[in-house]
């Protein structure tokens, strides 16, 4: 089948075409460039991108399921992109409870896809933008991007999303730990899940105190939820709407999307240069330079200069 | 003071010179290149690099402290590089208990430094190798690199370290969650900390079952610890020694270090190219391309081509 036909079918909302295109994008298909050009050339709508991140065990996938339901209630077409390697959507032999998302398995207005997040220069910056374009082409009005924190992935998701939800759970010192980890800087909305457990109030208070120390135009709301019972779903959806309204009125939405396009172009250019290094010399030149750094006192900066001269 | 004097003082094991050089490296000092060349030109010894990673709350810093003590018992000079943004060594207003590591604050054979891990192309790949060279120059025979998991940071640390410890704690489904997150692939040694808590045996069993599914030349041992009481310290140190012996006898140590040198050279070359994009056009070209991607249906691959042509 022609790639242009696949793109047409995705635009018509055909789930298998959507799935196939995302797989092609994720696997670095040789048609990636063509697919991207087709998706860009006539992009019908632009989705709201909502990132959802948090440590393992806080209930990311259950919360994603809850939000899908909330957005469906508002009659929006929803996409889910799970770039969380620990997500039950990701597949693989170790994974158990796909059950919850199967509530939506037969809903033609919900598209759920998982992506591997591995890759040298960050899988997210590389393939996720194209996967988002596929979901936008399929008419998704909201896309939830689920990824595991804390670390580089969390920074990536913040640059990818319009709104970033940071999910915490009471206990295990998550509140403070998360704050230490720079999560304060990236969260637009805090969700404290498992709010039927001891310590919820303490976690909320801790977060509130820390937020009070930071002067920012948008103060992230803190929403308690019990995701597996669907408690707090409407409140989270309202908080997301409020943040969207802020983004639009402040001009921040345009700014974020522009920054995202810049990052994407730059990442593609760097990846192209990187493969140019490898292709020109079949990796042998880099191997030889690495050996000289290890054994002959060559410093890596001079080695990098030699690599670039050779790839000129 | 001349940079060459600083490097000499670091070689003599003077802690303030070590601290100053690491700060310069971390802050991207204009002398970075010169410092690196000096460190490389006459590198006296090569340290064992041990990575330690795990989710927030599993007790990374306590475990690091415990291991410092174990290596000091073996009369080794030890460096600690905390690239974990949630580490109590990292500093900043929110951070509490630096207490434990202060046991070592007056020991001239222990060097402890924290580094920020942020940065677009991964702070670790950029500055950490130079910081490790500083600690090696200061005569450290072992360097513990502490970083938070799960995510990209964990992959980075695996490529940086000779041996990677993955730290878990019982409960909160950490065992399975961690395994899902691809931790199985990077762990050389598993430590189940807080082993005085309920669920330790379950976590160990879970890990063991998962490891049994994977066929690899090195099967990671699983060591229970109670780090705050120092329980299990010797067992972890023994497991690390066993892995080092494996690395040496299999040729894997040389292979890992060579791959690390390659990665470093490549990262430096890419960073240089990236700043060339920015400098040549004062970012205006990239801005204009981003706008065309957002508003005019330009695809990002074509935009990247234009960027590279312009930066030729």
UniProtKB/TrEMBL annotation, chains A, B:
Family matches, as SUPFAM superfamilies: P-loop containing nucleoside triphosphate hydrolases
Pfam families on file: MeaB (PF03308)
Domain of life of the native organism: Bacteria
CDD domains noted in UniProt: MMAA-like
InterPro entries cross-referenced by the UniProt entry: GTPase/Isobutyryl-CoA_mutase, GTPase_ArgK, P-loop_NTPase
Keywords: Chaperone, GTP-binding, Hydrolase, Nucleotide-binding
Recorded family membership: Belongs to the SIMIBI class G3E GTPase family. ArgK/MeaB subfamily.
Record-linked NCBIfam families: lao
UniProt protein name: Methylmalonyl Co-A mutase-associated GTPase MeaB
